[in-house]
Amino acid sequence: MLVFVTGASGWIGSAVTDELLAEGHEVAGLARSDASAAALEAKGVRVVRGDLGDPDGLAKAAAESDGVVHLAFNHDFTDYAGAGRTERAAVSATLDALAGSGRPFLLASGLAGTGAGPLTEDDPSPHVGADAMRGGSENLALDHADRGVRPVAVRFSATVHGMGDHGFVARLTQIARDRGVSGYIDDGSTRWPAVHRSDAARLVRLALEKAPAGSRVHAVAENGIPSRDIAAAIGDQLGVPTASIPRADAQAHFGWLGAFWGVDVSGSSERTRELLGWRPTGPTLFEDIAAGAYALPA
């Protein structure tokens, strides 16, 4: 299968690309920069130059593929609404290119903001329309199940961790390093789900190969880890104290991450495991922290 992957050189996308290649698939990867293109070419990936702001180019690459894994997203927190509209336009063009083909379209989504936890695969996303979070792209994609596309929403944990991670946990660690204290908000009872990068990549490949149209699958290995425990693990690794940060001071202490760190999110992957035969085998988040995955400055 020739799979068009957006975000193919990113944190999750590079692992997904490696997983697909290892299992005998061909990959066409979207690349915005010369460096990304060179990295993909070195793996034997067919490079597609462009970005999410070129829906016609995305549609062309999708039409020439046997399936699409859409992982790219413009994480511009200064214009998140604009990023959502760009996402919706990109997804809409890609789906139109696949209509009537029966080919798979996998969409990266998330667990945050989809309802009260623990979230299950049966819980629909409340985000509908161009002005919703991420442009309402999950519902847009799943609505195409009756248009001859096999759409699958892959909901990733808040942290997809591993050696080299530059995401949320890396940022939390850098803040703790800079401030000399590893903080959590209020009583630290809010939770984050987690999954190792290798397990997330394998889940994407399994969903591409066999998830039914209209499926939601959860890349969740640990359902919900209390934020105070994550902060404590970071503090132990850095040798700094752990402390509560009042919610009123969260933005001043954590910056833009304060809006996410205090949100309670948990999710189940029980039905995903049954559907795909997926079993996480990678390290836990605490094992990665203790092993030094976040020991160096981000």
Automatic annotation (TrEMBL):
<dbReference type="InterPro" id="IPR036291">
    <property type="entry name" value="NAD(P)-bd_dom_sf"/>
</dbReference>
<dbReference type="Pfam" id="PF01370">
    <property type="entry name" value="Epimerase"/>
</dbReference>
<dbReference type="InterPro" id="IPR001509">
    <property type="entry name" value="Epimerase_deHydtase"/>
</dbReference>
<dbReference type="GO" id="GO:0004029">
    <property type="term" value="F:aldehyde dehydrogenase (NAD+) activity"/>
</dbReference>
<protein>
    <submittedName>
        <fullName>NAD-dependent epimerase/dehydratase</fullName>
    </submittedName>
</protein>
<dbReference type="GO" id="GO:0005737">
    <property type="term" value="C:cytoplasm"/>
</dbReference>
<dbReference type="InterPro" id="IPR051783">
    <property type="entry name" value="NAD(P)-dependent_oxidoreduct"/>
</dbReference>
<feature type="domain" description="NAD-dependent epimerase/dehydratase">
    <location>
        <begin position="3"/>
        <end position="213"/>
    </location>
</feature>
